[in-house]
């Protein structure tokens, strides 16, 4: 019996050796030819990615090549290759290269079904702009006004069409749109701009004529409101800042629409020019749609710092029929429990300004202290533009802070104090790209306590948060952040824990747990002396708790890579974080910067980016590793920090 089984296995293995099984279901001979690699040569004026966007042929991405279980979807099609030649040539023709030529070749790249496709471009010389002239066909009386205006001169300097520049017909609509925008901002609501190009293909030269038919200079007349609204038409017109008799401006019209759309009461707003004969006066039509007047929102989540957390809020968006907003919100987590009331006056002295009254109560449970406080914050907020916002706040709080003692046998000490402070903050955001944030974000902050003499402590805090988001490729972003802050006080030795600076945690220097980077205090056990009294045991180590400090510096470098090739919304990140807390001023000799490195996973969920980060402490202090007086009370995991949260680290 055993001999028969052995013979059967031998025959089976021989058959397998003669007919190998492919994991992906097809032999190399049966697989259709696939574009394994796609390359473009000779494209001196445009990057590969821009040309590939014009093509139907597509090769495997780096991540697609890793999917050994499904290497399909990039079949080689000779007809499409020939069409791509035409597409690329047309792409160059529309961008000022009339004599560009394109050819392709197909080569084997390893396995028989793997093909390398190479497109070779011969751009040749482009058409150059020889002259640009500006005309006003009707001999318009406003011609001199337009030509001497700074905005029109600036548009000419920054135009895509310039003397000796490449003439690209595809950019004509963009150039026309920019000139029309400038002229509409000068009051010409009915302006029409055309560009005539005289092209000499033998000399590769173009002479351009920009013709502007201005029409009458116009002024706002009547504004009508359409749509169901619980506020008056006069309120909406005031919120738009448009006034009868003002000169027409496209920029003012767009800003008015943004102001109404940004108002908490409205979810839809448009302002259009009503159908009318061309005249020096303009009638406008404003269409609005309101949000629900009363809403209840609830959310819950999980993170490695707050563990379970939840929030519930109720909002009324038209309190007393004056478009004021009243919100009450309760938040509960392992660290924080709070109740907030907000009353918003959306119009302080113009549409860009608002005033908020916010009484609150809060309970914080940190490692080194427990804080209960209640108070009120009054804030004047000014939204200068979509990018720039500033606020001036006055806050008064009554605080009861329970501080953790170094010896567990002693009761915690309670410190009662009042804080009265003036706070100034700013926020500048350069912009967003299609996939996420890009450019600069700047957030300065200043606080002066002791205002009106009603504060137990007098101190000043200054800090700044600088961020930069740089797209490296279509799917890769370099995110950087630098933070710096200082605390200046006349009673520095007795400052409460809640006022000090802390570093470390999910959205700070990763590798360290919440607030755990920097100076620490040791908590020891207690023993009984001969009289039965509890006294500190200087050898009985229990744990370290953060002490905070008066000066801090921190930075974060993070590369974020989207990998939609594996599944939609997935990504990874690599980071280097660093920073330090100092008890007084910056002192790198006694307390150098500490660094954390690591990586993580990202998923763009409907509620925001869900992330898992693992950080490694590069140069931890003995306290970070739970070492006390030469003894090691820690373990290997003390060098690592695991961070789970919703939202990017910064």
- CATH topology annotation of the largest domain: Porin
In the residues, how many domains can be counted?
4
| General form | globular
Strand numbers in spatial order across the main sheet: 10-11-12-13-14-15-16-17-18-19-20-23-24-25-26-29
Structural class: mainly beta
**CATH architectural arrangement of the largest domain:** Beta Barrel
Estimate the helix proportion, in percent: 10-25%
Low-confidence stretches: 1-26
Query: Number of DSSP strands?
Result: 29
Strand % is over 45%
Terminal Cα separation, in Å? 69 Å
Radius of gyration: 34 Å
CATH classification class of the largest domain:
Mainly Beta
What summary fits the major beta sheet? 16 strands, antiparallel
User: Mean pLDDT, nearest integer?
Assistant: 87
* Helix count, DSSP H or I runs of 4 or more residues: 9
Provide the CATH superfamily of the largest domain.
membrane protein fhac: a member of the omp85/tpsb transporter family
Describe this structure in words.
With 650 residues, the protein is mainly beta. The protein folds into four domains: 97 residues, membrane protein fhac (Ubiquitin-like (UB roll), Roll), CATH 3.10.20; 86 residues, Roll (Ubiquitin-like (UB roll)), CATH 3.10.20; 72 residues, Ubiquitin-like (UB roll); 300 residues, Beta Barrel (Porin). The chain is 14% helix and 47% strand. It is built from nine helices and 29 strands. The strands form six sheets. The chain has a 16-stranded antiparallel sheet with strand order 10-11-12-13-14-15-16-17-18-19-20-23-24-25-26-29, with no helix packed on it. β14 and β15 form a beta hairpin. The longest helix is centred in the N-terminal third of the chain and has 17 residues. The radius of gyration is 34 Å and the shape is globular. The termini are far apart. 22% of the residues are buried.
